[in-house]
Amino acid sequence: MLQEASAVGLVRTILIILLIYFGIKILSRLFAPILMKYVVKKAEKKFGTQFEGFQKPKEQKEGEISIDKIPKTKPSNKDVGEYVDYEEID
């Protein structure tokens, strides 16, 4: 009961594979722009809510002072050692 592969069966299988391939290719061209719009809109909404506080400055009364950035102080390391001045000898 061993079945042999016939030429008709092989051609039929190749045609089915090609139809599936081109079908996916055509459908992806139709639905890719819709999918991309959805992804972009979702990302835009996420970033918009994440950075909402940075875009709206606080209202200030005239004469008020606000400091937005605190300057970083560099820690001094006095245990570095002694500085030795040297000269090059030719």
The number of strands is 0
Regions with pLDDT < 50 over 5+ consecutive residues?
Answer: none
The helix content, as a percent range, equals 40-55%
Radius of gyration: 35 Å
Number of discrete helical segments: 2
Question: Approximately what portion of the residues adopt beta-strand conformation?
Answer: under 5%
User: What can be said about the biggest beta sheet?
Assistant: none
Describe the model.
InterPro entries: DUF4834. This is DUF4834 family protein. The chain is mostly helical and 90 residues long. 53% of the residues lie in helices and 0% in strands. It has two helices and no strands. The protein has helices at residues 7-50, 52-55. The protein is elongated. The N and C termini lie far apart (96 Å). The mean pLDDT is 81.
Summarize the structure.
The chain crosses the membrane at residues 6-27. With 90 residues, this protein is an all-alpha fold.
Entry keywords:
90 residues; mainly alpha; 2 helices; elongated; transmembrane helix; transmembrane; DUF4834
What topology emerges from the helices and strands here?
Elements: H1 7-50, H2 52-55
